[in-house]
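User: Some background: our group keeps a shared notebook of sequences we're curious about, and every so often someone picks one and asks for a predicted structure to add to the entry. Today it's my turn. The entry only has the sequence so far, pasted here. Could you supply the structure so I can complete it?
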Amino acid sequence: MRRLALIASATAILAALWLSGCGETKPAQASAPSEAPLAPAGPPAPAESGPVVASGLLVVENQVDVCSERAGVVVKTMAEPGLKVKAGQVLALLDDRQIAADLEAAKAKTRAQEADLKNWEAELKVLEVDAERAQKMWDAQLITKEQLDHAKYKLISDQWNVKNMRELLANAQASQRSLELEYEKTRIRAPFEGLVARRYVRPGQRVAVGERIFWVTAVAPLRIKFMLPERFLGRIKVGQGLRVSAPDLQGSSHPARVIQVSPVVDPSSGTIEVVAELQGAPGDLRPGMNVNIPIQNSQ
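Assistant: Of course. Here's the predicted structure to add to the notebook entry:
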């Protein structure tokens, strides 16, 4: 019996060892990652060719709203849209009756002050002669000291009167000039030679200070402001010739010349601003029109 028990125990141990050996799993060997096939190197990107066509608006430097410099009633308009005008030409009139009357009164006061001043200056000459004669008579012991002092003090008094009259005259002249300026403001004038583009008022209308009366625009020289990619910085220069064409005008092509190139790049758009000026007669081109400007990449 003891022998059978030993055999059974050994058998159980061998069975256990066999089962544990069968449960072990060998770790899977990591497979090397497959390398993606390299794409064949293609040809380099072709260099940019052909012109870059920029676009911009035709503008003029002188283009302003002519506004009223004083309040008043428009009594007459003397210009309509499309009229060519010269610098200083009267375009409209404001009611000037009150200011004209005030100006005439100021002129009369100035004339009166001028007459008074001449009267005092003439009297001053007389007193200068009297004072000189009194001094000689005093030296000859022909008059008393009081008489000499009286002549001298009268001369000094008249000298101060002359100075006072000169100040009064200067004040009257300044008032007159002020009224003349106000009177001039009743004349609405063209600030430069150009074209009346719009009229904002009509006769009988009351206007306030700063209210628009006309819109006047110059017709020349025409300029074009346009943007170019930053790669053109250093490649387009002042004095460079260009051609300008209007897409809405068949066969239009006009010479232009670069007059300004921005020295900095706009960081938001990566562009530079260029200003060119039209050369020669503008033909059918007008301010506000859209035009195209081809720029050669090789330039």
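Suggested note for the entry: Residues 1-6, 17-47 have pLDDT under 50 and may be disordered. The chain is about 35% helix and 25% strand.
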